[in-house]
Structure formats: structure tokens, C-alpha cells
């Protein structure tokens, strides 16, 4: 039985283009449905992306995945037998996601406030770490400025000297490196993409980004 893959998109969308490139690189056949975003969004788009009502949306066997970066990651995880899109190394993949997110922010999105999912993940995994509080208003530490030279923001997770910026990326890295510990994210690719989507929505709505510090693992 064949798989049903539908992409709700708009031809001029850079975010949709990212998804189309990933699908093309993977050689995945899909049905393309153009959306009239200005005058008449389709009932399918409104149903499949209830929160933002935006494109792109990938529908795989009736299940929607929203946000272009999550869709790219989802295709990489589901069609593992195809050519990989993201690096296999967790550190390199985290940095690829970081820079992709930075480019998205540079295209006009408001900076995201974050709540510390990484700290929760470390606790759930039972991982011991050193917590360093940052004075991000008056005196950011040299370590923070060095390890996050782009955004100069927290949280930053440091593992064996390697920094991971952005809370959700840190969570994913923790999950992949400490696989022998209790899982923090769902094992099912679809459920995992949905968990990240809702976490990102909550993070974007949070106003408490000044409460977190730099974390360094022993």
C-alpha cells in the first residue's frame, strides 16, 4: 500500500521551498496543493494547522507536520533509506538546525523567548550538570559571549566543551546522546514533531527568557 504525502504550500514561500528541496533530495513523490493565503485559505489548511493557519504543512498518511524545519527533520527520520538531509553527527546536526533557525529569524520573525526545556530534559534523564547563572541584563559572562556569539542569549548547553544554543535543539541533543536514559521525546517521528511544534509555540509565547542560565555538563 502506497504512502500518501501532500504538501500545502505557496510557490513564493522560502520556507515552503526548503521543504520542496528536502522532498526532491529524498526522491519522495508527493501531491502539491497551492494555497491562496491572501483571499481564501483552504479548509484543509485551516484543519491541519489549527494554531498558525500557515504554510508549509506536510500531510503524511493523514497526519500533519507544520513548520519547515520540523518537516525537514521529519522527512529525514521517516525516510532513512533515502539520501540524508541533515548531518548524522548530533553536534553537527544541532548546529545545522541552529543556523537554519537563525536564518529564519533574520527573514523577519520576532526573536523567540525560551523557557528552559533543556533543564527539564536533563532532570528527566538524571544527568548531572553544573548550573551557571547569567546576569543577562547588566553583565553577560565572557563564556556566554564566546559560546553563543550570534545571539548572545541563554540557555546554552555545553557538553565536553561543545556549545548547543536554543533550548529545543539542546533537548534533542540530550535525547540523542543519552539514549540509554529514559526517553524525553516520543519515539514515533510524528508524535515527536508535534511535541516540538507545541513546545516551540509555548516558547514563543513565553516572556520569561531572562530567568535561565548557562549549563555545563560534567
Features:
218 residues, alpha/beta, four-stranded mixed sheet
Explain this structure.
It is a single chain. The protein has 218 residues and is α/β, with parallel strands linked by helices. The protein is built from 8 helices and 8 strands; from the N terminus they run E-H-E-H-E-E-H-H-H-E-H-E-E-H-H-E. The longest helix is centred in the middle third of the chain and has 17 residues, at 90-106. It has helices at 14-26, 43-48, 68-78, 90-106, 117-125, 142-147, 167-177, 189-205; strands spanning 5-9, 31-34, 57-60, 63-66, 129-132, 156-159, 162-165, 214-217. A hairpin with a 2-residue loop joins strand 6 and strand 7. The protein has a 4-stranded mixed beta sheet. It has a 4-stranded mixed beta sheet with strand order 5-8-6-7. The protein is globular.
Helix proportion: 40-55%
End-to-end C-alpha gap: 49 Å
Question: Helices and strands: which structural class?
Answer: alpha/beta
Mean pLDDT: 83
The oligomeric state is single chain
Radius of gyration: 18 Å
Number of helices: 8
- Biggest sheet strand order reads 2-1-3-4
What letter string, H or E per element, gives the SSE order?
EHEHEEHHHEHEEHHE
Q: What kind of sheet is the major sheet?
A: 4 strands, mixed
Give the total of beta strands: 8
Shape: globular
Q: How big a fraction of the residues is strand?
A: 15-25%
The low-pLDDT segments are: 108-115, 206-215
Amino acid at each position: 500500500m502506497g504512502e500518501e504525502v501532500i504538501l500545502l504550500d505557496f510557490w513564493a514561500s522560502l520556507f515552503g521551498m526548503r521543504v520542496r528541496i528536502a522532498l526532491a533530495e529524498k526522491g519522495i513523490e508527493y501531491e502539491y496543493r497551492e494555497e491562496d493565503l491572501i483571499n481564501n485559505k483552504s479548509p484543509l489548511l485551516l484543519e491541519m494547522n489549527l494554531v498558525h493557519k500557515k504554510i508549509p504543512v506536510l500531510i503524511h498518511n493523514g497526519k500533519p507536520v507544520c513548520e519547515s524545519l520540523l518537516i525537514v527533520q521529519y522527512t529525514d527520520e521517516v525516510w532513512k533509506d533515502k539520501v540524508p538531509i541533515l548531518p548524522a553527527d548530533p553536534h553537527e546536526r544541532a548546529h545545522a538546525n541552529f543556523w537554519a533557525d537563525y536564518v529564519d529569524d533574520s527573514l523577519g520573525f520576532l526573536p523567540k523567548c525560551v523557557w528552559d526545556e533543556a533543564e527539564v530534559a536533563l532532570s528527566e534523564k538524571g544527568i548531572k550538570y553544573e548550573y551557571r547563572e547569567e546576569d543577562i541584563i547588566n553583565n553577560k559572562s565572557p563564556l556566554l559571549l564566546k559560546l553563543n556569539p550570534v545571539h548572545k542569549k541563554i540557555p546554552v548547553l555545553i557538553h565536553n566543551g561543545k556549545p548547543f544554543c536554543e533550548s529545543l535543539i539542546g533537548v534533542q541533543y540530550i535525547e540523542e546522546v543519552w539514549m540509554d536514559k529514559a526517553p524525553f521525546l516520543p519515539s514515533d517521528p510524528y508524535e515527536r514533531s508535534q511535541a516540538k511544534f507545541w513546545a516551540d509555540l509555548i516558547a514563543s509565547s513565553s516572556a520569561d527568557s531572562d530567568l535561565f542560565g548557562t549549563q555545563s555538563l560534567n
